Every structure is written in C-alpha cells, then in structure tokens.
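>> received
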Amino acid sequence: MIVAFSVAPSGGRAGSEPDSVHEAVAAAVRIVRESGLPNRTSSMFTEIEGEWDEVMDVVRRATEAVGEYGTRVSLVLKADIRPGKVGELDGKVARLEAALEGAADADSGARDTP
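>> returned
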C-alpha cells in the first residue's frame, strides 16, 4: 500500500513561531525516513510504501511526534491499497511518464504527416 499523508500542529506551543511548522514537519519526516520504508516528501505530502501495519505504525508515530509541537494535530491521509503490489511508489510515476512520452511522440508524429 502507498499512503500519502500530511500532518501539522495547531495551537502552537509557547515560544514557537505561530505560522511556522517546519520543525514539527521535520520531526515527522525524520520518523518516516528512519523507518526504512520507501518514501518521498514533497512540499505538501509525504508518501510511504509498505504493508498496512508497518505503514500505519509510521504514520501514527509521525503524528505523535508532531503532537509535541502543539495542542492539536491535523492529519490528512490518502491510501492506495493494492495487496501484493510492491515498488508502486516509483512504478506509478514511471507508467505516467511513459504515457506522457507516448502521447508526445504520437502528437509529434501526427504533425509530421503531410
């Protein structure tokens, strides 16, 4: 399964910047990276791939770490559950890029035809 999630604190702790969550997000991403599971982080989400129990354990621990930075935690989670599939974190993107490349090749070929 692949889980894309975003976690952020609210109700900040004393002495912290009110609109800055980078330290809290860094604590969560550190847990994800130390898990050893395939993962990637973008500006809005972290994706992690593995079996249900191991992925959800990492998400739980990342959420708990963010909880240290505020009185509340917001968690957004989206899951792609495909039993028996592995390597999809990269596989899905590779198939998309191949489709885009194929469409571009088809478009350029159509323009070259008189």
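>> The CA atoms of residues 3 and 79 lie 4 Å apart.
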